[in-house]
Amino acid sequence: MSWRPAQLRAVVVSLHRGNPPDFMDHRAPRRLQSFAVQTLSARALQLLGVINLLALLAFGAGCGSRAERGEVGGTAGVPGALPSNFPFNYRDASRGWPLWPLHRQHPIRASFLDPRGPYRAGGGGYHFGIDISVDDNRPEPQAPRGFSHEVYAVEGGEASDVLGAPRHHVCSARRVSVGHFDYWHVSPIVTPGQHVEAGAVIGWTCLGEWHMHLAEWASLGGQRIWVNPLHAGGKIAPYTDTAAPVVRRLRFFSPATGAWRPQSDLAAPDNSTPFIPTRLHGLVELRAEIGDPQSYWGFITRHPRWKTLFHPYRVAVVIRSQETRAVVLRRVSFESAQLPRTPYLVHYAPGTVENKTIPECLAAPSGTSCSGMYWFRPFSRFRQEFWDTRKVPNGVYDVTVSAWDLRGNRGSSTTTVVVSNAVLASQTEEQARDGGAAPQR
Q1: Which end of the chain is more exposed for a tag (fewer CB within 10 A), N or C?
Q2: Is 202 helix (H, G, I), strand (E, B) or coil?
Q3: 328 in Cβ contact with 400 (< 8 Å)
């Protein structure tokens, strides 16, 4: 049997979710299936990390000679994009939140496509849903021991993927699916195949987790894909966000000469060299620090240190000559409408720090920042890409990075750079003739 990376990744994800893959004989006794799945899924996350690393190497090696692929049925050339006017086909017209009160906004600390660095079993990638916070200091009065808040179905349907007690002893490992939504870190009170109406109670959040993870899937091109649960026209409403993303810093680097292998987060640097913006030459990588602050925090307002930034919905870059006003590069590097195929280390740059969970914040020393930090690569789409300054005349250019959130709020930052390929080359040649050292850069 031969496997494509996408097929192998799907099998591993299926195992990690506790489901038998298609090649397993479903006629075998359930006890045997369960044993096989548990045995295989113990290595699922570890294997998934290896697959992601292999995918990253494949994207990085020899990609420049072949056409770039868009997402599944998405917009060609833009990772994470969906087709315009993509239809979300729900089973009912209900809208709301999976927590009480159903028709009032709740705070979210972890957004769709947040980085999840290599840790525990060695895997790393994108956060494929949103983490909706609950106040575990104030559990609901009727909450059973070990639980905190009731969870409600945002869409009707039959319950599936029901992983609950007593088989799953750790509450945070429990979950349930109804309709197009998965509810993680939720202890279900429904049974497999049970019909559930929108707005019905389906489980409890786990005391001490301080959140539930909500993920939404859609069907596209015959495949099931993860999509952003906060998308326009979706089930989660009301959702208000009036704060625009902030593009804080733009920095320029030479290409790294070796592989970047981050550890528990992505803050560790690679071996690239910073460029002075007024002396750009050769291949240049742009990195941008971008964060999307939220305008609603609910009970987290009482704990300012717990606030986090969101991943922006869209990032784009434009480079314009100051002399001619001609645009020499214009690019949308990604959208966060669906889970991208792009390896996450192409999307995120060194300096990125995963935000801390509330339990991690509570355990950290006072004054520790919990918000995390995002550094992006605005030139890179499906592989790491650079601006080849040798293809433009020497001169002064404006580099503008813009970021949008889901509600269309936009933030941007512009910095002026100077391309000086010929000048640096002539200086190097002159110093070589004089026996001097090449200029430091």
Answers
A1: N
A2: strand
A3: no
Q: Which of 375, 437, 427 is nearest to 249 (CA)?
A: 375
Please work out, in degrees rounded to the nearest 5, the angle formed at the alpha carbon of residue 266 by the alpha carbons of 353 and 109: 30
CA distance 384 to 62: 11
CB proximity list for 119: less than 8 A, separation 6 or greater: 264
The two structure tokens encoding residue 346: 């192409």
75: confidence class by pLDDT, cuts 50, 70, 90: low
Angle at 339 between CA 229 and CA 156, to 5 degrees: 35
At position 270, the amino acid (one-letter code) is D
In the prediction, which pLDDT does 216 show?
98
Surface-to-core class of residue 134, CB atoms within 10 Å of its CB (0-12 exposed, 13-18 middle, 19+ buried): buried
| pTM for this entry | 0.81
Q: Which helix (H) or strand (E) holds 345?
A: helix 344-347
Task: Say if CB 126 and CB 344 are below 8 A apart.
Answer: yes
Q: Give the whole-angstrom CA distance, residue 37 versus residue 34.
A: 5
Q: Dump the DSSP string for 292-329.
A: B--S--GGGGG-GGG--PBPPSEEEEEEEETTT--EEE
Residue 407: DSSP 8-state: T
pLDDT for residue 341:
86
- CA–CA separation, 271 and 259 (whole Å): 9
Report the distance separating Cα 362 and Cα 228, nearest Å: 28
Which two tokens mark 40?
């295989």
What residue segments make up the domains of the chain, in order of their start?
246-434
Does residue 18 register a pLDDT over 80?
A: no
Which three-class secondary structure state does DSSP give residue 352?
Answer: strand
**Which residue from 225, 273, 252 is spatially nearest to 375, judged by alpha carbons?**
252
Output phi, psi for 185, to 5 deg.
60, 35
Backbone angles phi, psi at 182, to 5 degrees: -110, 135
SS3 letters for 20-73?
Answer: CCCCCCCCCCHHHHHHHHHHHHCCHHHHHHHHHHHHHHHHHCCHHHCCCCCCCC
